[in-house]
Amino acid sequence: MGSQPQPQPHPLPTAFTPATPAGRDGLAALLAAPDRALIALDFDGTLADIVPDPEQSRAHPGAVGALAALAPRVASVAVITGRPAGVAVRYGGFAGVPGLEHLVVLGHYGAERWDAVSGTVRAPAAHPGVRAARAELPGFLDGIGAWRGSWIEEKGQAVAVHTRRAEDPVRAFESLRLPLAELAARHGLIVEPGRLVLELRPPGVDKGVALAEYVREVGAGSVLYAGDDLGDVAAFSTVEKLRTEGIPGLLVCSGNEVPALADRADLVVDGPAGVVALLTALASPPAGT
Ligand SMILES: O=P(O)(O)OC[C@H]1O[C@H](O[C@H]2O[C@H](CO)[C@@H](O)[C@H](O)[C@H]2O)[C@H](O)[C@@H](O)[C@@H]1O
């Protein structure tokens, strides 16, 4: 009797089996050649639980350890966030961690870059429209009768209006969409919508552009991207495009509060705790390797 090739047992817990063939190909490529894989992750909602006050946001307790265990096994680990890069590094606790000597944080949707090797942030010149919008915003919100509890987050290269603390956060958010789009356009800015936040920021870069450039820089042979919010949709699109160019990818959604992202994911995990569990599983070599 001829011996038939036996299916190999999946080395990860079944909870991490992607729902799509493309996702399974992406995961298989990552596991077959981890040293060619790029692991790219969003911060808020993906590596850090969502909290009402953005200044209180911190990486999930298991995140840094999981990243530090995984990073030496893969080509690169990058955090791609809407936060200023330095803020993500601080709130993440990413600096000076053994194992994360080559971590890169792309902040402000890719406009800024921090790397662990230099320990410094490279940032573009300030966009004059941000200063003008920042100056106008408090009076503007009063003028349009924004919901009580709406508040302004100062982000340096951008300025954001949050509604999570309003009595009806969703209605408060919706009521701001059009007026803030008009204000942003007047100052040459765009509105980046997120989870109960509308950010006014310079155009020209997004997480998809940032990810595509970083994949090229690293020469990655496969990509895992994990996110949770609308700002991550562009990165998902980049991974989908890379697949058509022969670079397998795995799209992971942290939670399913944002259906526009979750519906496109190959794998939906249980929030930052689920992301940490996935990273931990990827960092543990399957038996026999
Ligand atoms: O790209 P990200 O790393 O996901 O950053 C996107 C936004 O994250 C922050 O806001 C979100 O997290 C807050 C803290 O958990 C939460 O209070 C808020 O409702 C979320 O939208 C950050 O404050 C924003 O500036 C970022 O754009």
Automatic annotation (TrEMBL):
Q: Which reaction does it catalyse?
A: alpha,alpha-trehalose 6-phosphate + H2O = alpha,alpha-trehalose + phosphate
InterPro entries from the xrefs? Answer: HAD-like_sf, HAD_sf, OTSB-like, Trehalose_PPase
The keyword Hydrolase is assigned to this record: yes
Pathway annotation? Glycan biosynthesis; trehalose biosynthesis
Which Pfam family would be a valid example here?
Trehalose_PPase
Q: What class of enzyme is it?
A: hydrolase
Q: What does this protein do?
A: Removes the phosphate from trehalose 6-phosphate to produce free trehalose.
**Record-given protein name:** Trehalose 6-phosphate phosphatase
